[in-house]
Structure formats: C-alpha cells, structure tokens
Amino acid sequence: MELKIIGLITAILFLISVSFFIVNSFQNQVQTQTPLQPITTVYTQYNGTYFPYEVKVTYYPGNMSNSNLGFPSDWIVTNYNQEFESVVPTSCTYLQQGVSWELPADSFGGGTPIPLSTPASMLPGASALGEKAALVFLTQDVGQPLGVTLADNLLFVEEDSGPGTILAVNPISGNVVWYATGLASMAMQDPIVWNGIVYVPVGDIGFTFTALEHALRNESSGVYRGSVYGGIYAFNASDGQLLWMRFTFGENMPDPVVYNGILAYATGSGCFVGLNATTGSTLWITKLPGYIDSMSSLNYYVGSNGTVLFIAGFTLLKYPYGILVAVNSENGKVVWQSQLPSTYVPFNTGMGDSPATVIQSSGIILKDTIANFRNGTVDTVMFAVNATNGNVLWAINLGRGYVPPAFKASMILANGNYAYVGIPSLGSVAKVSIATGKIIWETRLPDLGIPPTLPGGPRGAPVYYHGLLWVAAGSHIYVLNPDSGKVITMYYVGGRFGIVDPVISGGTIFLTNSYGWVIAIPLSQIYPDWNS
C-alpha cells in the first residue's frame, strides 16, 4: 500500500513538473512573440564622466525586418559616398516597387511634429520672428536639417528636439526599431555607420558672450562656436546599446568620417581629431585656433601613394575668411590649406558650412560658398582644387542674390563629368563641367521662395537616378532633365526641406522634413514614368 502511495505521489510530482515545464516553455515563447514590448536602457555616464541628460535607449526587437534588404553595411561619409550620390542598392522587392509611410519622428524626442500642410504663419515664433526666420529656426532647433542613412538593414535619422535624438527605423514599414533620447545637444546630421556602429555628432549654432568679446577685440584665436555641450556618441547599430561617448570643445555639428578604422571629426573650436573608431580612444588632435567648422562634414581622399587625407571647410574671422584644410589621416598633420582666389572674399559661415565633394577618380575636390558681400547681396562661388596639393583649378560665379539665412551654401553632387549644385539665394540648380567650371545650364525652381522674403534653396545635393535629377527644396520634390535642366514635374510634400539630400533605394525615395517627419514615397507617385 505504501509503495502504491509512493508511486502515486511520484507520478503526481512528475505530472506537475511536466506541466510546469510546458507552462514555462509557453510563457517563454509568448515573451519572445511580443515584439512591441520595448527594452529600455538608461545611461547617465560613461567612463567616469556624467552626462548632462540621461540617455534613454528604447529597443523594439520585433520591429526589425526579417530579411536582408541588400543595403551596404557601412555609410562612412555624409550623404553616403565621396561624391554625395545617395543612391543605395537594395534586393528588397517592397522597396523596389516603392513603399509609402510617414513617421512623426520628432515626437520620439519630445517634440511636436507639425502637420505638413501647416502654413509658415502658424509655425513656432512666426508672429515674433516672421515667416522666414520661423522656417529656419524650425529646421535648426526642432526638425531634421539633413537626410537619412540607409545601412545595415536599417534607416537611421537624427532629430534636433529634446535636445537630440537618433532613431533606427525599419525602412519597409516605418516602424521604429530603437531610438535614443537625451543627447547632450542638437543632432543635425545623417548618421555615420561603420562595422555595426552608428556615430552621432551633436552641437549647437550659438556663440557665448565670451566668444563675442574675443571677436570684438579682434582676438580671432579665442573665438569658438558652441554655447552648450558638444560631443559624439557611438551606438550599437542593431539595438542602440551605447558603446562610448566623448565630449568636444566647441560644437560638433558636422558629420565625422571613418576610414581604415579611424574616425575623424572637426569642431567649432578648430580641433581636427582622430579616434579609434571602435573604442573612441584618441589617436591625434590637431588644433587650429580661430578656425570654425560649422556644418562642413568631413570627406576623404586616397592619394596615389596610399596616403589618406581627411578634408573639411572652416570659417575664419580674419582674412582669408574661409579655408579648406586637408590633414593626414594617420597623424593629423596638415598636408595643405586652400583658399579662394583674391577676387572672391568668402562671407559669413559659408566656407565652414558646406562639405567638400571628392571625386576620387580624377583627384578633384569641389566646394562652394558665398562671397563678396555688398548691400545685403552675395555671389555664390563654386571652385575646384587639386586633391593632392590644394591648388585651385578654377573658380566660377554662379550668380548674385540676397544673403541666404542659416546654412550659407549647398552640397554638390558629382556625377560623371558634371556637377550639380544648388544656389540658395536664387532658388536655382546649376550644372557645371567638372573639368573646366563652365556652367552648362542654370534652372530657377518654380514655387520656391527666395531671400530676402523666404529662406530659398536648395541646400542639399540633387540625386541623379534613372537618367533624372531629383531635388528637394522648399515644400516640393522637383524632377529635372539633367541634359537641359528643364523641370519635368514637381511634387508637393509640404513642410520644408532644409539641407535635405534625398536618398533613393529601388523605387522609394526617403526624405526628412523640418516639420519633424521622416517620409518614404514611391517614385512612381512623384513621377509615374521614372522607370520608363
């Protein structure tokens, strides 16, 4: 009898254990099948240094795409490559056909996405600042000035609000995979991605009163840009885990560049810095007192002898007022400095705003700026330099107009033998021969308000795709014939496009907007005959 009781108890215990195992297994399975349940991590310091705001990373594992989209693994320079040709290959059928979604990205950083149909008169501060200033302030302080990054099966985008935010988005669905808020200052660029790491520089447009005092006393070496914290963050590209962070002296608004495992950046205090791209440890620092890199993201050039140069534009408060600098990637030593011919005098932040376009095959660097200020008007000047020694090959005047607000120049697309550049003060796009600097055509974009009344544009680089030129400016996407410059069609999106380089993958164009949105639009919706 006792044996039967013991056997019965044993059987019951066995059944209980099996049931517990089944229930436990089911619970574990359910947990892995609740993709919208976020994983949140909060960071308050790194390596013994506290952050001014807690960095909060929220990760939604189930929102990641289940298939390989065929994107490149890396995006090592602003706007994808040296020539700023932001056409990204994909093997994804959905993207090839064209996907459509709108993401209120600004809401993730505590901002308020503004409906794209909102007139400028209803924007924050419009009643006090006027419509032109309200549009510019929104771009610089709330929305996203630049475009997106497509790499490592994700779309990455930065937002200025809150004070800085980065999001990783599923490019097919528009669902957020992870996002990080509480960055030390404004995040204004398209993120750089390398070896599974995404780099986010932050900084602001202000000058301290001390910097102004130095400027008034003509002590240009004591002037730097950045009235709050500047810095750079490195996150795991897949899940947003914070890998390292470092603060910078002066703003760090421009994008860094990564090459051969070296991450280099330039700041508003005239520092050119090289880091170990994996660990963030310092390799070299080159100090250029009085040099201010506002938004001139770094580019690179590989010389015939294998020497790699990192290149950035700087603003100076004394003659020559603007300069292009190339440093050796291994040690940070200045290899050359280049300036405009004396007939052109750079004005305001122009030289320190726009990044240089590098044409690796011909060893030519292209740059633009505003110059020759007089009675509220300026020339827009484009020039080419020898990438090996910095000698100016040619310089041309693209036209004269009223001073554009904020970002003073434009990003230049190089495609084949020609370059395509925007002229913000005139609301135009020009096609220029890379070899000679000859202007082939210049087209005024319709319905684009220009200074002094409105901000003008375009400021981002056009994109050459399927024999067409795609341009984001004002509230529209323009499609141009690259041979004649004729506007084929214009598609109204709304809001405002700042320094936006459209990014195209398959049959989809990805855009950011100053009103706080990230947008995916099928190319067939913009121009039905794009693929004919």
From TrEMBL:
Residues that span the membrane, as ranges: none
Family matches, as Pfam families: PQQ_2
Coiled-coil annotated residue ranges, if any: none
Boundaries of every Pyrrolo-quinoline quinone repeat domain copy: 223-394
SUPFAM superfamilies: Quinoprotein alcohol dehydrogenase-like
Domain of life: Archaea
InterPro entries: PQQ_b-propeller_rpt (IPR018391), PQQ_rpt_dom (IPR002372), Quinoprotein_ADH-like_sf (IPR011047), WD40/YVTN_repeat-like_dom_sf (IPR015943)
PANTHER family linked to this entry: CELL SURFACE PROTEIN (PTHR34512), OUTER MEMBRANE PROTEIN ASSEMBLY FACTOR BAMB (PTHR34512:SF30)
Protein name per the record: Pyrrolo-quinoline quinone
